[in-house]
Every structure is written in C-alpha cells, then in structure tokens.
Amino acid sequence: MELLATIVIGCIGNEPRYQRALYERYYGYALKIVFRYIYRYDRAVDVSNDGFVKLFGNFSRFHCQEPEHLEKILMGWIRKIMVNTAIDALRKQEMMPEIGGIPEHIWEEADPGQSAEQRLFHKELIVQIKELPPSYRVVFNMYVIDGFSHQEIASQLGITTGTSKSNLAKARAHLQKKMNNDLQESDICSN
User: Domain named RNA polymerase sigma-70 region: which ranges (predicted)?
Assistant: First the structure.
C-alpha cells in the first residue's frame, strides 16, 4: 500500500516514472472496462490510452480521505474515467457496434487474483453482453456492471430515464433467453 501511495503522489506531481508505474499496474484493468463497451481490440486499446491521458491530466483532482482504502478508491476513479471515455468514443461513432476479440493474455493481466473459473465466467459474460444490440449493451454495462443510476445513464447518453429502464429490461430479457438456450443445448449435448 505504501508503494501505491508513492505512485499516486508521483502522479499528482506529474512525474512520468510514476505515471508509467500506474499505467503498467492498471492497464489490464482499464482495458477490461473499456472492452465491455468497445469490442474491437485495437480500438479498445486506443480508448484505454485516451482514458489514461485524461486520468493523468486530471490527477490533481484525485483525493483519498481514507488511505487504507486507497486502491479501492483509485480503481473506482479509474473505472469512472474509462467508462466515460468509452461512452464518448461510442457517441462520436454514433453508437456503432464494434466487433473483434480480445487476446487471451489480457484476461490474466487484468486481474491476476481471479481464479481460472472466475476468469472463464467473466469471459462468457462478456461474450453474451457483446451480442446485445448497442443501446441495450451500453445501458446494461453502465447500470449492472458499473453501478450508474438510470438518471446518470440518461444524462450521459442523452436519452430519457424511461428509455434507460426499458433498454435494461430488454437487455436482461435477451441475456436470460440466451442463457436458457445455452443451458438447453448443453443438456441435449450431455445426453
């Protein structure tokens, strides 16, 4: 924790060596967040890097009142910046769906503390979410995974709160149907 505090202080001071240390430490985490919104790997890398530029440009605004929770608070701040950067990129592309895969090594880099089973579940969930229509996918990611309220989603995306709620309900229904179909197929294959 002491090393992270040193890195954060260095980033606040705009020191490149500490910025690099933070970037290397949280790059996989940031890329996983962006990849939930931007599915082309090369584009997700660009958006992640844009997010880090924003992060470092605004590091003077980062404050942590509870040093014992520094990493948790920092990761939440990184997540917020990456989500907003990804949404900005989607908005510029008029929410065009992205396609592409993510290299296998990113799953291990992103959270080395996860078990193989957790990584597999996360990968399967991302594949399922990826198949949602773009408007449903973005609302689902923002509400379920990133914890935004419907009002925040509506404001960010320029839609009504009702549209946000409707898109979430449709996304959930689509995912449930897909999971039920997958379960039925696996039952047929195992018999």
Answer: 22-93
Token digits of residue 133: 């229509």
DSSP 25-72: HHHHHHHHHHHTT--SHHHHHHHHHHHHHHHHHTGGG---S-GGGHHH
Name residue 64's amino acid: C
Alpha carbon separation from 21 to 11, 57, 94 (Å, rounded): 9, 16, 34
pLDDT in tens, 37-68: 887 888 899 999 999 999 999 998 998 888 88
The first and second tokens of residue 135, run together, are: 């408007």
Predicted TM-score (pTM) of the model is: 0.68
As given in the structure block, the two tokens for residue 73 are 């608070």
